[in-house]
Amino acid sequence: MGALNQTRVAEFVFLGLTENWVLEILFFTVFSVTYALTLLGNILIMVTIVFTPRLHTPMYFFLSNLSFIDICHSSVTVPKMLEGFLLERKTISFDNCIAQLFFLHLFACAEIFLLTIMAYDRYVAICTPLHYPNVMNMRLCVQLVIALWWGGMIHSLVQTFLTIRLPYCGPNVIDSYFCDVPSVIKLACTDTYLTGLLIVSNSGTISLACFLALVTSYTVILVSLRKQSAEGRRKALSTCSAHFMVVALFFGPCIFIYTRPDTSLSMDKVVSVFYTMVTPLLNPLIYTLRNEEVKIAMKQLRQRQIFS
User: Fold this and answer.
1) Considering only 22-26, 137-141, 181-185, 271-275, which range has the smallest mean pLDDT?
2) Alpha-carbon dihedral of residues 129, 134, 140, 141, nearest 10 degrees?
3) How confident is the model over 191-217, as a mean pLDDT?
4) DSSP character string of 109-159
5) Of 151, 150, 160, nearest to 195 (Cα)?
6) What span, in angstroms and rounded, lies between the C-alpha atoms of 118 and 116?
7) What gap in Å lies between CA 234 and CA 292, rounded to an integer?
8) What is the tally of helices (H) and strands (E) in the chain?
9) At what angle do helices 279-289 and 21-50 cross, to 10 degrees?
10) How far apart are the C-alpha atoms of 152 and 158, rounded to whole Å?
11) Would you place residue 33 in the very low, low, confident or very high pLDDT band (cuts 50, 70, 90)?
12) Which residue has the higher pLDDT, 4 or 180?
């Protein structure tokens, strides 16, 4: 409690992506469209899966949860960033900053766990297809989703506690457009080396361990495809390649940002934009453009709405 009583900073000031007002207007336009497409694309996937009975399978249940997490994940940072483009002084209160980093880590960690579960789902479906209905039943799927949210909550609470226990008495300028643990703890009025190591051991270990588990799963799947028919190999490769593209796009920035203790690079802002904005938009594009079942279901749903 002593550390909390020393907190004097009432707000933080973002430097944002640029100080050039022309670029700010350009970024505002581009990112507004990107965010709108992210919301529309992910909502469309969720609605299609909910209203198409044949898509009520574990794979599409997880995909609908991924779309929900992507909506939440992008909504944590993007609206505040868009607001900043229109303001000369970009500020956020201390409490809102802590809330932002809490939800950022909650949804990011939940997505990491969900992508790992989705890889396991594909492993069971392709490598042990006869046991798949018994292993990946809907009861287990719901339990796994509940577990990933609990895991994300615990991770986020740890990150938030490590951040909020430090004293903040100035400066209060964050060289970014959103609050994240690495950028906030740099402003603490005390030595943060140990805290930085704890943060890296938490976020970095989760990201790296899950990524290695994913790579192992897909490697085993690729090896097992030699026993499949040509049609089976084609379908499995199409599904797994889409999954792995999403994994690479999401885990790459996470590992880049959260496995470096107390270091900043000029590329961090670009990587953060990709991680918080571009990836949630690419996910629905990847899963719709490469998935015939989803495209057919969307077409049928649209026709059903037109004729009704």
Assistant:
1) 271-275
2) 40
3) 82
4) HHHHHHHHHHHHHHHHHHHSGGGHHHHT-HHHHHHHHHHHHHHHHHHHHHH
5) 160
6) 5
7) 13
8) 13, 3
9) 40
10) 10
11) very high
12) 180
| Domain locations in the chain as residue ranges | 2-303
CA 133, CA 140: separation in Å to the nearest integer? Answer: 11
Task: Specify the higher pLDDT residue, 236 or 180.
Answer: 180
Rounded Cα distance, 206 and 214, in Å:
12
Distance (Å, whole) CA 171 – CA 188: 8
**Which pLDDT does position 232 carry in this prediction?**
67
How many whole angstroms separate alpha carbon 183 and alpha carbon 257? 11
Look up residue 304 and give its amino acid. Answer: R
Cα dihedral across residues 202, 208, 212, 214: positive or negative: positive
Please give the Cα distance from 21 to 12 (Å, whole number): 21
Residue 266's pLDDT is 61
CATH 3.30.420.10 fits domain 2-303: no
pLDDT digits (tens, 9 = 90+) for 121-149: 988 888 888 888 888 999 999 999 999 99
CA distance 145 to 64: 11
- pTM beyond 0.90: the answer is no
Whether a cis peptide bond, with omega within 30° of 0, leads into 171 is: yes
Angle at Cα 64 formed by Cα 63 and Cα 66, nearest 5°?
A: 60
What integer pLDDT is reported at residue 61 of this predicted model?
A: 94
pLDDT of residue 144: 95
Q: What tokens does 122 get?
A: 């594909």
Task: Give the sign of the dihedral formed by CA 55, CA 116, CA 282, CA 79.
Answer: positive
Cβ(52)–Cβ(297) below 8 Å:
yes
Q: What is the CA radius of gyration of the chain?
A: 21
